[in-house]
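User: Here's a structure from my thesis project, written as structure tokens. My advisor, Dr. K., wants to see whether a designed sequence matches the one we expressed. Can you design one independently, without my sequence as a hint?
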């Protein structure tokens, strides 16, 4: 892993009280810096310092690399990491490199891991992929949670972040490995009357009520907060 173009950190507390941080970074295995992999680092305290693992956690370079990892602990104690296979980095052009046919897959993957947050305990499973041009060839920024009723909610962004087609969406399942069914429409998108422009990249606090996301603001991006409720297979914004 290279030490530049590093983004998308996610910190999880492990059962022994220590912490693991997942992050995306360019890889030195590709000289032009066009591919990212997911790394992990651990620390006994949340403030660090964090010590990186020797090898990348996810680095499928033949499929474009990997980004946007986040951890999930199920109610039965099992741990998983969800991440995006970065197929748009090997796409054939257009918005964010992947709206020109043939559109490359950008599957959101689920990897079971052990109590240390990084040792694989089974095979990765693809949960959802982009729906071609309707998603501008992109799904990314997965975040997984489970409602009290036992429904799994897979939040994600679709579309190119540099366009008004970027959204926050979700899909639901009754099993952590799926199959996942998309909601009928995005949760947040440009033009819905909420004032958000190109919203994406969300996360939900452990209470499944408090959500943060980012959207265009001035000449850059800003963080926004909102309240949600998980009811049945729907996400209600409040």
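Assistant: Designed independently from the structure alone:
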């Amino acid at each position: 892993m290279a030490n530049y173009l590093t983004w998308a950190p996610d910190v999880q507390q492990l059962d022994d009280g220590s912490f693991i941080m997942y992050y995306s970074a360019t890889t030195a295995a590709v000289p032009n810096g066009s591919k990212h992999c997911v790394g992990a680092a651990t620390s006994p305290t949340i403030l660090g310092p964090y010590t990186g693992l020797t090898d990348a956690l996810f680095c499928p370079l033949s499929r474009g690399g990997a980004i946007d990892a986040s951890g999930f602990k199920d109610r039965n104690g099992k741990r998983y990491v969800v991440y995006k296979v970065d197929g748009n980095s090997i796409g054939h052009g257009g918005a964010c490199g992947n709206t020109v046919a043939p559109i490359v897959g950008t599957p959101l993957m689920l990897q079971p891991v052990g109590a240390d947050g990084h040792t694989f305990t089974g095979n990765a499973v693809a949960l959802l992929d982009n729906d071609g041009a309707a998603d501008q060839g992109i799904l990314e920024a997965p975040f997984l949670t489970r409602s009290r009723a036992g429904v799994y909610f897979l939040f994600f962004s679709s579309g190119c972040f540099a366009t008004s087609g970027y959204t926050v969406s979700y899909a639901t399942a009754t099993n952590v490995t799926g199959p996942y069914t998309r909601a009928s429409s995005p949760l947040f998108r440009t033009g819905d009357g909420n004032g958000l422009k190109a919203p994406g990249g969300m996360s939900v606090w452990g209470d499944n009520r408090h959500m943060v996301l980012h959207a265009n603001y001035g000449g850059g991006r800003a963080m926004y907060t909102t309240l949600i409720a998980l009811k049945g297979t729907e996400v209600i914004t409040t």
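When you compare it with your expressed construct, this may help: The radius of gyration is 17 Å.
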